[in-house]
Amino acid sequence: MKVLAFAASSSSKSINKVLANYAASLVDGAEFELLDINDYEMPIYSQDREEELGQPQAAKDFFQKLGDADAIIISFAEHNGTYTAAYKNLFDWTSRIDMKVFQGKPVVYLAASPGPGGAQSVLAAAVNSAQFFAADVRASLSIPSFYDNFDMESQKLTNAELEASLREAVAKLK
């Protein structure tokens, strides 16, 4: 099983990238790739730019990566209650190739924040819109107060309840 994991964040210090990597490592017997969305940077999407540029190769490459995976793990960062601009732009360009961005793949949606909200607003938005973009959401999980629940040195969740929930979520990808 090939799992594609990434953070919906462009931060080089993204806790969501840490979480996506950790979650992917928990999928028994899976080969996984951790993607960096910074490798798919494009101009800000607009209809005018699309008419001028067509579909950028980076969007095509991202769509292909999603298509080549057997399962997908995304950990969403939250900026002002919604998607990060970097992820939203990548998603918008990719959706112009095919609205079925996730191509029917099983996905686990995660979100983390340093505060107690756990990026639940963006996670809810992603889950609620998943059906429109052919994402087969098998589970979703928010990790609040990330630094209180995750040991950055050992790269593991320290909260037993969240650890069990995460293991249960990623097991649903098979």
Q: Can you say what the CATH homologous superfamily is? A: Flavodoxin domain
In which range does the helix fraction lie?
25-40%
Percentage beta strand: 15-25%
Shape type? globular
In order across it, which strands form the biggest sheet?
A: 2-1-3-4-5
Rg, Cα atoms, Å: 15 Å
End-to-end gap: 8 Å
CATH class: Alpha Beta
The poorly predicted ranges are: none
CATH structural fold name = Rossmann fold
Q: How many β strands by DSSP?
A: 7
How many structural domains in the coordinates? 1
By CATH, the architecture is named: 3-Layer(aba) Sandwich
Broad structural category = alpha/beta
Mean pLDDT: 97
Number of helices: 7
Q: Helices and strands, in N-to-C order?
A: EHEHHEHEHEHEEH
Largest beta-sheet details:
5 strands, parallel
Overview of the molecule:
The protein is of the alpha/beta class and 174 residues long. It has one domain: 3-Layer(aba) Sandwich (Rossmann fold). It contains seven helices and seven strands. The strands form two sheets. It has a five-stranded parallel beta sheet, sandwiched between helices. A two-stranded antiparallel sheet has the order 6-7. β6 (150-151) and β7 form a beta hairpin. The chain starts with a strand and ends with a helix.
